Structures are given as structure tokens and as C-alpha cells.
């Protein structure tokens, strides 16, 4: 249904914890920022309710995710959920993204039975080599490329070398770079062989969403 490489272009990630800097409630802010981002051409959205200040109540998380999904559907942009496989299946999301510390990826592949697209976070070459031939994995999220303020337990940043090394090993999976990415980095990262850029703060904190997303795309 969605072309994975195109979908990775400008892959926006957010939850309420990333939207505390505006005037209204974090939930209203998230939906507002998401709609602005959709209007201006993001190619994917991942709902990631995680870390300090995130929502705790399951019902609230479900309702908010559903509202975000409804917005994404209106703009025909794929809707992903971070980590929470049950929530993704219940909502019939388009995809799920998991990290190395989440449930074992082969278990996830079995559990989702091809109903969801699947992304896996990669932080070093060994992880990429291990997962490169697993068919149910649709893309790798590679990073953190640069230092990030959006994830308190982020691994040390890996720079562009990891992307280059993955491509040198002839690993063909679609790649999206993540971590500390700003507009000015886009060209360099894409030239290393990435299919897109995954972004929290450069979008949530943008003062000019149209310009930001335009610059990330070009
Ligand atoms: N995983 C690795 S870095 C990161 C995640 C979720 C945070 C990216 O946020 P930002 O603000 O784009 O650096
Ligand atoms: Mg995770």
C-alpha cells in the first residue's frame, strides 16, 4: 500500500512529551503540530509516547493515538506506533517501530503476521548484519546520528560512518537516519545512502514548518 522508501523521506516522530513548549495542553499541541506537519508534506508519522512527562493512562494514550491516526488518514500518510504492538494491532495502524531493547524482532514478525509494516532501530553494524536478511523487517532506523535532546537514554551518537558502513556491506534494507537531525544535515545524510530522515525536535520546535519540511525534503 505504501512505498517504504518514499515513506521514509520526512518521517516525523512525536508524543505529548515533545510538545510541552506551546501554550495549550500537550495533547492539543501534539495534534496541532501533527496537522501542520501533514499539511506541509511529512511522509510518515510515528506516535511515540515515551520518556519523562509522557502520558501514563492507557485509555488516554489510545484516544490520542486514534485522533493522530485519523489525521494521518486524512492526508494519506502512514501511521506508525512506537513499541506498543497491542496498540498498533488494535488500531490497525500501518506500522510498528521497535528498538533493540524491545521484544525480540523475530517474535514481533510472527506476532504481527504481515498486518503491519515493521521498523527496527540499529545502533551498530553488528545489529544491521544480524537483521539484514529478516524478511518481515521493512526498514532500519539508524542512529542516533548526532547528539539528541529528545531521548534521555539515547546511545552515543554514531555519525554518518554507520550509514556508509551499512551500505558498504551491501545491506539493501531501506534506511532512515535518526537523532539530532537539523535541516542543514539533510543533504549529507541522504548522500550517504539513507532513504530518509526521522525527526522529532527540528519539526516540533520549528518556527516555520513549511520551510523546515521543504528544506528536509530538498
Ligand atoms: N531514537 C534515537 S534518537 C531519537 C530516537 C527516538 C530522538 C530523535 O529526536 P531529535 O529531536 O530529532 O533528535
Ligand atoms: Mg523502543
TrEMBL record:
One of its GO terms (cellular component) is cytoplasm. The gene is thiE. InterPro entries: Aldolase_TIM (IPR013785), ThiamineP_synth_sf (IPR036206), ThiamineP_synth_TenI (IPR022998), TMP_synthase (IPR034291). Mg(2+) binds at residues 83, 102. CDD domains: TMP_TenI. This is Thiamine-phosphate synthase. GO terms for biological process: thiamine biosynthetic process; thiamine diphosphate biosynthetic process. It catalyses: 4-methyl-5-(2-phosphooxyethyl)-thiazole + 4-amino-2-methyl-5-(diphosphooxymethyl)pyrimidine + H(+) = thiamine phosphate + diphosphate; 2-[(2R,5Z)-2-carboxy-4-methylthiazol-5(2H)-ylidene]ethyl phosphate + 4-amino-2-methyl-5-(diphosphooxymethyl)pyrimidine + 2 H(+) = thiamine phosphate + CO2 + diphosphate; 2-(2-carboxy-4-methylthiazol-5-yl)ethyl phosphate + 4-amino-2-methyl-5-(diphosphooxymethyl)pyrimidine + 2 H(+) = thiamine phosphate + CO2 + diphosphate.
